[in-house]
Description:
Blueprint: H1 5-22, E1 30-31, H2 40-47, H3 57-79, E2 83-85, E3 95-98, E4 103-106, E5 109-112, E6 123-130, H4 132-141, H5 143-146, H6 148-161, E7 165-172, E8 178-184, H7 187-202, H8 217-220, H9 225-230, E9 244-246, E10 252-254, E11 259-260, H10 263-266
Parallel strand pairs: 1-4, 6-7
Antiparallel strand pairs: 2-5, 3-4, 5-6, 7-8, 9-10, 10-11
Amino acid sequence: MIxxxxxxxxxxxAAIEADERAEVPFRSHLGGSQIGRECSxxxxxxxxxxxxxxxxxxxLRLFQRGHGEEARFVRYLTRIGMNVxxxxxxxxxxxxxxxxxxxxxxxxxxxxxxxxLDPEEEILLEFKxxxxxxxxxxxxxxxxxxxxxxxxxxQIYMGKRQLKHALYMAVNKNDDDLYCEIVEFDIIEFAKLMxxxxxxxxxxxxxxxxxENATWFACKYCDFSGICHKGEPMERNCRTCQHSAPAENxxxxxxxxxxxxxxxxxxxxxxxHLMITD
Length: 278
């Protein structure tokens, strides 16, 4: 009997999900792409590894598609004469780090020769994909209003790289329509975001909720809603333990054992684990 075509899709998604589970399940640092979210408590839960991230095969394919679009963006910009640099001198993606190595992010690229700007000025490149509804909102309102997380992410990267402008380039995945916007650096916004990152990294307890109503839109669809509003336990690991604290160079210090926590032990914790309480 011939396999039903839908089963092929299920098999593909299952294989992608299996690959994802085989990788490190948590991000080691607080990401520049996350700091722009409205709820500091949500960001803190992610940084403290309160719940193992889980994505469906379909969502993982969407992420992969977004990464795949970056090469097309680079080709488009190169064809109009821009000098695009995706990688640093060691052939690695451009990165920024701060807050003793606990806050950082990866840049899509740097470039010179942007039309409308000084041809020698180096600018940040930020590439994103959108669905039709999101793309329509973006073209009508601009990135700062329609996608504040993306706007704030660019402010962090520009500030750390001491750049004056960023080129935000987006594509509608449904019809391949393109959108470009030049974003200016805002030093006040940058300072606020850096302060926010430092506060979250060193917070010993979850910050205040953005809403006390679990059915409010932002809370209802949050991955941490069960922990935040319903009292579900956080996962047991060193980052959810009261004895741990961020240290220099992106490491963590255990106040029980008075030593830096080995990376291999971070995801499991020890018998002295004491869960952080709200």
